[in-house]
Amino acid sequence: MSGRDILLDVQRLQVYFPIKSGVMRKVVGHVHAVEEVSFTVVRREVFALVGESGCGKSTTGSAILRLIEPTGGRVIFDGKDLSALSDEQLRLKRRDMQFIFQNPYASLNPRMNVWKLLSEPLKVHFHLSEAELREQVEAMLKRIGMTPDQLTRYPHQFSGGQKQRISIARALITHPSFVVADEPVSALDVSIQAQILNLMMELQQEMQLSLVFISHDLNVVRHISNRVGVMYLGSLMETGDTEDVYRHPAHPYTQALLSAVPSHDPAHKSRHIVLEGDVPNPADPPSGCPFHTRCARCSEQCRQSKPELREIAPGHMAACHCV
Q: CB under 8 Å to 91, separation ≥6 — which residues?
C-alpha cells in the first residue's frame, strides 16, 4: 500500500472523559473511552469498526472528525494533521469529510424543511446562485430515491427510512471524499435496513467515497466492508481484510464475537464461545491486555503487559500475546 493511496491515517488516538466530583467539580479520574487506536483508510474503501456497545467505536468516529476533541494522538487526513488546524481551516476541510449519525429522528432539525436541510451545507461551503443550489439539491434527492415535491416537507412528515435517506443526502451534498457512518441503520426497521445499506453502497461506488462504517452487526459489516477493525474497551484487538478476519479470526475476542453470529445455513453447527465475567470499568481499566479478565487463554504476560498490534499474516494484525 503506497502512502499516496492512504486518505486517513489514525495514529495512537486517545479520548479520555474527565470524571468530576464534589461542589468544586474537581477532576477525580478519567473514563478511557479510546486508548491508542491506530489504523488507516485507503481511498475508495470501506473500513468497518465493530465491537460490543460501549467499546469506543462511536467515540473514535467522532474524534476522527473532531466532533469530540481527542486527548492524544494524531489524525492525518489527506496529508493534513487535523489536530493542528485552526477552527477556520477545519471548517473549510469539513466539506471533504462528513458524518452520518445513527438516529435520523434526532439528527435532523425539526424546524427545517428538506430544502433548508440540504441547501444549508452548500451555502456554508460554496458560493452558488439560487438556480445552482436548486439543481444540486434536486440532483441529490434523485440519487437517494426521493422527488423535488418533497422539498417543502419537514422531518416529522417522513418515515424513519426516508429520514435516514435525507441524512445521507445532507452528508453527501458537498461531495466529500470521506464519510464516517455511525450505525446508520440500527435505528431502522429490519425491512428498511437492506434498502439503506444498498443505497449507501451504490453511492459509495458512484461517488468514490472512503467510508468508516461503525456497527455492532457483524453480518452487515461482512456485506459492506473491505477491511474491519475489532474494538474492545477502547482498544483495537484485530484488523485485516474482512473475509480474512471472518474466516480466520486470530484474537480470542474476535473468535467469541463471530461465534455468536447466527448462521443462515441450518445444517451449519458452530460452537458458541461464552465469555465469562463483565466488561471492565473504562474508568479503571485493567493492566496489561484489556481482554485478559475474560480470556480463557490468559497468561501472566497478558496480565502484565499490553500487546501491540502486530502483523500475523499479510495485511492481518492482532494485539494478542498468544497468537
A: none
pLDDT tens digits for range 183-227: 998 888 888 999 999 999 999 999 999 999 999 889 899 989 999
Cell digits of residue 316: 492481518
d(CA 117, CA 215): 25
Contact 83, 163 (CB under 8 A): no
Distance CA 255, CA 323 (A): 12
Distance, C-alpha 259 to centroid of its chain: 22
Q: Are 280 and 286 within 8 A, CB to CB?
A: yes
What is the C-alpha to C-alpha distance for residues 263 and 95, in angstroms, rounded to an integer? 41
- Cα–Cα distance between 186 and 180 in angstroms, integer? 15
- List the beta strands (DSSP E) in the chain: 6-21, 26-42, 46-50, 72-77, 80-81, 97-100, 178-182, 210-214, 227-232, 235-241, 310-313, 316-318
Global confidence as pTM: 0.92
